[in-house]
Amino acid sequence: MENSIGLSSPKRARRLPAEFNIFLVLIAISLTFEALGWIFQGQSFLANTQRLSIVILQVSVIGILAIGVTQVIISGGIDLSSGSVVGATAMISMSLAQVATARAVYPGLTDLPVIVPVLAGLAVGLVCGVINGALVAYARIPSFIATLGMMVTARGFAKWYTKGQPISFPTDSFAWLGAGLAPVWIFLVVAFIMHILLRYTRYGKFTYAIGANAHAARVTGINVERHLVKVYAVAGVLSALAGIVVAARGLTAQAGMGMSYELDAIAMAVIGGVSLSGGRGSVAGTMIGMVIFGIIISGFTFLRLDAYYQEMIKGLIIVAAVMADVYRQQKRKAHR
């Protein structure tokens, strides 16, 4: 009798977290580049701490976008505008963070406290996010089309703002936001906050519920439209924060900043196990996906692979990540 009960019990074994498999992939890829490094370059890939620190710095900024994109995808949508919002925000924030020079965009608004350009930049991202959310939630426009329109509009605004001219000479306090490991710390704070929000709060529960089944979520009393606006607004603010960090790190702002960042952010999220069909994913998974993405790009550079091939391989990585997500969905359906 005990055996029959044991066999029929649904609690036979505890499942490992989905992030565990992704972490194993990270280890496998890292060890592969380590082996290739000794074979083709005669040196270690992983032992070079300077290279690894550069990788972390590079992916941290896009990682901020990826966290915002993650919650959008979990809610059942997509955000193609995040890279363009980075460019627009960089231009706005840098124009209000300049020291007094002959080339200041606003000669009467120089040497302002750092909070002014930061809040102005975040406000730009908030407006873009709210517009995206309103178009998706209330105008019933597919998120792909709504955010595609914002992508083009925000990029056009960034180019128009100074007629394509770059903006430079930020104050020291603004430049500090991109100095040293500051981008990494900013990313970690964002990741921690969003992890708490998505896992332990009503905001997160509503986001997962809407992504899993929007109709069922509405039946249970969730104001789906209002919550979607919040989700896209948060994504816009995080894109703006990334734009501020990018501008501060480069000590200049250009209209082309953030180009294709949205694709990298989506790839990081999907590699990290976020389902494009909505309702599944986590910040922790996206963080691992972010590191995997950075290791792959850095590994190809380490092996001196031509930049053109790197771009093509990056595209293949995105396609492979989507195919893996489709396979996971089919596997789940087969086990139901």
Rounded mean pLDDT score: 90
Rg, alpha carbons: 22 Å
Number of H/I helices: 14
Beta-strand proportion: under 5%
Indicate the CATH class. Answer: Mainly Alpha
Helix vs. strand class: mainly alpha
Q: How many beta-strand segments? A: 2
Q: Quickly count the domains.
A: 1
Shape: globular
Give me the strand/helix succession: HHHHHHEHHHHHEHHH
| CATH-scheme architecture | Orthogonal Bundle
* Measured distance between first and last alpha carbons: 27 Å
CATH topology, which one?
Answer: ABC transporter involved in vitamin B12 uptake, BtuC
Q: Which regions contain 5 or more consecutive residues with pLDDT less than 50?
A: 1-13
- Strand arrangement within the widest β-sheet reads 1-2
Question: What's a concise summary of this model?
Answer:
The protein is mostly helical.
Would you give an account of this structure?
By secondary structure, the chain is an all-alpha fold. The chain has a single domain, classed as ABC transporter involved in vitamin B12 uptake, BtuC (Orthogonal Bundle), CATH 1.10.3470. The chain has helices at residues 2-8, 18-41, 49-74, 82-95, 115-137, 143-161, 172-175, 182-200, 202-212, 214-219, 224-250, 261-271, 283-302, 307-334; strands spanning 167-168, 252-253. The protein has a two-stranded antiparallel ribbon with strand order 1-2. The chain is globular, with a radius of gyration of 22 Å.
